[in-house]
Protein backbone atom coordinates (compact mmCIF):
# COMPACT_ATOMS: atom_id res chain seq x y z
CA UNK A 1 0.00 0.00 0.00
CA UNK A 2 1.43 3.32 -1.01
CA UNK A 3 2.14 6.07 1.50
CA UNK A 4 -0.55 8.45 0.21
CA UNK A 5 -3.15 5.66 0.47
CA UNK A 6 -2.06 4.98 4.05
CA UNK A 7 -2.38 8.69 4.79
CA UNK A 8 -5.88 8.76 3.26
CA UNK A 9 -6.84 5.71 5.33
CA UNK A 10 -5.50 7.42 8.45
CA UNK A 11 -7.48 10.58 7.68
CA UNK A 12 -10.73 8.65 7.15
CA UNK A 13 -10.14 6.69 10.38
CA UNK A 14 -9.78 9.93 12.33
CA UNK A 15 -12.93 11.36 10.76
CA UNK A 16 -14.89 8.16 11.48
CA UNK A 17 -13.74 8.21 15.10
CA UNK A 18 -15.04 11.78 15.34
CA UNK A 19 -18.38 10.74 13.82
CA UNK A 20 -18.53 7.73 16.14
CA UNK A 21 -18.12 10.10 19.11
CA UNK A 22 -20.85 12.31 17.63
CA UNK A 23 -23.15 9.28 17.39
CA UNK A 24 -22.63 8.62 21.08
CA UNK A 25 -23.24 12.29 21.88
CA UNK A 26 -26.45 12.31 19.80
CA UNK A 27 -27.63 9.19 21.61
CA UNK A 28 -26.82 10.69 25.02
CA UNK A 29 -28.73 13.87 24.16
CA UNK A 30 -31.80 11.90 23.05
CA UNK A 31 -31.64 9.65 26.12
CA UNK A 32 -31.49 12.64 28.49
CA UNK A 33 -34.45 14.39 26.88
CA UNK A 34 -37.05 11.90 25.63
CA UNK A 35 -39.31 14.80 24.60
CA UNK A 36 -36.74 16.02 22.06
CA UNK A 37 -37.39 14.91 18.48
CA UNK A 38 -34.57 15.62 16.04
CA UNK A 39 -35.50 17.06 12.66
CA UNK A 40 -34.96 14.36 10.06
CA UNK A 41 -33.85 16.61 7.19
CA UNK A 42 -31.87 19.06 9.31
CA UNK A 43 -30.07 16.67 11.69
CA UNK A 44 -30.54 12.94 11.06
CA UNK A 45 -30.12 12.67 7.29
CA UNK A 46 -27.11 15.03 6.94
CA UNK A 47 -25.27 13.23 9.75
CA UNK A 48 -26.10 9.76 8.41
CA UNK A 49 -25.06 10.82 4.90
CA UNK A 50 -21.70 12.17 6.14
CA UNK A 51 -21.06 8.98 8.09
CA UNK A 52 -21.98 6.73 5.15
CA UNK A 53 -19.93 8.73 2.66
CA UNK A 54 -16.85 8.55 4.89
CA UNK A 55 -17.44 4.87 5.72
CA UNK A 56 -17.80 4.11 2.00
CA UNK A 57 -14.44 5.80 1.34
CA UNK A 58 -12.82 3.98 4.29
CA UNK A 59 -13.99 0.45 3.42
CA UNK A 60 -11.98 -0.20 0.20
CA UNK A 61 -8.87 1.40 1.73
CA UNK A 62 -9.19 -0.75 4.86
CA UNK A 63 -9.72 -3.89 2.78
CA UNK A 64 -6.70 -3.10 0.62
CA UNK A 65 -4.63 -2.47 3.75
CA UNK A 66 -5.61 -5.87 5.20
CA UNK A 67 -4.93 -7.72 1.93
CA UNK A 68 -1.55 -6.09 1.33
CA UNK A 69 -0.18 -5.50 4.83
CA UNK A 70 -1.70 -8.54 6.59
CA UNK A 71 -1.97 -6.82 9.99
CA UNK A 72 -2.29 -8.96 13.10
CA UNK A 73 -5.86 -9.65 14.26
CA UNK A 74 -7.63 -7.82 11.42
CA UNK A 75 -9.83 -9.57 8.88
CA UNK A 76 -12.01 -8.55 5.93
CA UNK A 77 -15.18 -9.68 7.73
CA UNK A 78 -14.48 -7.13 10.49
CA UNK A 79 -14.35 -4.37 7.90
CA UNK A 80 -17.76 -5.37 6.51
CA UNK A 81 -19.25 -5.58 10.00
CA UNK A 82 -17.74 -2.27 11.12
CA UNK A 83 -18.92 -0.52 7.96
CA UNK A 84 -22.45 -1.81 8.56
CA UNK A 85 -22.34 -0.84 12.26
CA UNK A 86 -21.22 2.70 11.42
CA UNK A 87 -24.13 3.16 9.01
CA UNK A 88 -26.60 1.75 11.55
CA UNK A 89 -25.27 3.70 14.54
CA UNK A 90 -25.47 7.02 12.71
CA UNK A 91 -29.25 6.59 12.44
CA UNK A 92 -29.93 4.73 15.67
CA UNK A 93 -28.20 7.48 17.65
CA UNK A 94 -31.24 9.68 16.98
CA UNK A 95 -33.88 7.11 17.95
CA UNK A 96 -35.26 7.29 21.46
CA UNK A 97 -36.21 3.59 21.50
CA UNK A 98 -32.63 2.43 20.89
CA UNK A 99 -31.41 -0.02 23.53
CA UNK A 100 -28.69 1.67 25.58
CA UNK A 101 -26.45 -1.37 26.24
CA UNK A 102 -26.57 -2.62 22.67
CA UNK A 103 -25.90 0.83 21.22
CA UNK A 104 -22.92 1.46 23.50
CA UNK A 105 -21.47 -1.95 22.60
CA UNK A 106 -21.78 -1.09 18.90
CA UNK A 107 -20.01 2.24 19.46
CA UNK A 108 -17.25 0.49 21.44
CA UNK A 109 -16.84 -2.14 18.73
CA UNK A 110 -16.46 0.52 16.03
CA UNK A 111 -13.97 2.43 18.17
CA UNK A 112 -11.99 -0.73 18.92
CA UNK A 113 -11.54 -1.54 15.22
CA UNK A 114 -10.71 2.05 14.22
CA UNK A 115 -8.26 2.57 17.09
CA UNK A 116 -6.58 -0.79 16.45
CA UNK A 117 -6.18 0.02 12.77
CA UNK A 118 -4.79 3.45 13.61
CA UNK A 119 -2.23 1.88 15.96
CA UNK A 120 -1.09 -0.70 13.39
CA UNK A 121 -1.06 1.69 10.45
CA UNK A 122 2.61 2.51 10.06
CA UNK A 123 2.88 5.97 8.53
Automatic annotation (TrEMBL):
Task: Name the Gene3D superfamilies for this protein.
Answer: YppE-like
Q: Which InterPro entries match?
A: YppE-like, YppE-like_sf
**Top-rank taxon, per record:** Bacteria
**What protein name is recorded for this chain?**
DUF1798 family protein
Which organism is the protein's source?
A: Salibacterium qingdaonense
Amino acid sequence: MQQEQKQELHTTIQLLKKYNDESLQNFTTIAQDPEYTPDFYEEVKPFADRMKETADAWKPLAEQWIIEEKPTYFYLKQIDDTHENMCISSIRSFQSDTKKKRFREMIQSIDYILTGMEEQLHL
